[in-house]
Write the structure tokens for this entry.
Amino acid sequence: MRTLINARGTYTIISGSRALDCVAAAMVEATNHYVHLDELMTRVGERLAGLTGAEWGYVSSGAAAALAEVTAASIAGADPEQMARLPDTTGMRNEVIMQAAHRNTYDHAIRMTGARIVEVETVEELEAAFNDKTALVAVTGDQAHRGKIPVQAMIDAARRHGIPCLVDAAAERPDVPNRYLEMGADAVTYSGGKCLRGPQASGLVLGRKDLLWAAFLNAAPHHGLGRPMKAGKEEIMGLLAAVEAWVRGRDHDAEWQCWEGYLARIRTAVEDLPSVETAIEQPGISNVAPTLTIRWNPEALQCTPQQIHQELLDGEPSITVHVLKDGLRIMPYMMEEGDDAIIAARLRELMGKPHVLPAPSVLEPARADVSGEWAVDVRYVFGCSAYTAALTQEGNTLRGELRTPFTVSPIEGTISGSAVTWGAVLGYESSRTRYAFTGEVTDGVMRGVVTLGEYGTADWVARPAKAAADA
């Protein structure tokens, strides 16, 4: 198993952050003792309150788990009968008000409780959305700039109507005093495995004690909807150690200077190469660290950002960075001492040697007409799905729609010779995936591979709908 040099950030898919030594030590110590988890969370909640200035705090198994647990508490409270019924919310408050601009893939954690998200875009729509079914107002902190309604206005509206307000601040800094609690939010969630550098499978929740204790009752070790979302004594004590370090131990100014030093070394290594332009960019409220962007003219440097990105990944050691359309971005957040020298040398080496640039894409005249309706069968690693693709073809251009049992999605693509490439976006509400189909037309049948983003690939075959029905 290869390890990575992480110059990309605290993404869960690349294992987030490296836990602080004090965190690892706390987890090891915790595993040597037996405790009652209700009593442990009571004591840890008190300590978190003392450290952060919040009324109370608790430890979840992650920021997304906390979204589900706080939502469940807002719907069912601490009533065991109602908790046992989730995600069936019949007879309960189950509406969560959220700005459309704040929707994201993580609000699936809210929906999984049985909640129905009510989207609003204006202050007037916000006010009109409250009713006797409203359970929660949800805010995504780092999406505030996208919405028309300020975060403070969302919180104020929730308070006027006596409804809890939850802020998802997963990748933000849990600084003291807490900006969202000072605004009047009832609960704020943070990832434990990002800037805190606590256990990767942990989350920090701060806010009102009654709401947070109800959220904990909806989670493990109790037997509500959140029972699968277990934070053990090791994660609980590890995260407490991380918060202690954040508030009382870490030198945040020194960390920033260290990150700037890493970027300066990498910048110096490449900035004299032909056409290269570099810039240090300052962060927003999430993933708070400076970044270095490196842009260049592929013709002048004889390499593309995509080629360099792939060679960094494929090298030894493997290095992961952000790839942009016209360059690379280096994020020093989770870099370790010495990583900057390795990255600088590797970038200099790869960008300093000529590559064979990809040939411009030229479409061949189509050797088939795929206009019409097609029965599309997709076979996943487990399970299969049947769709209908209605295609129109004009020269090399394909358009149409993909019909599933749940939705209809536009199709755009091309045909070059007998090679087809087309795609559609499927999913539900804000949880959406692009299905990228590639394949060949042979004897009136299309077949190939569909790429599913983070979900891997699947095989597909399409036959004319009438022929498939007759068969």
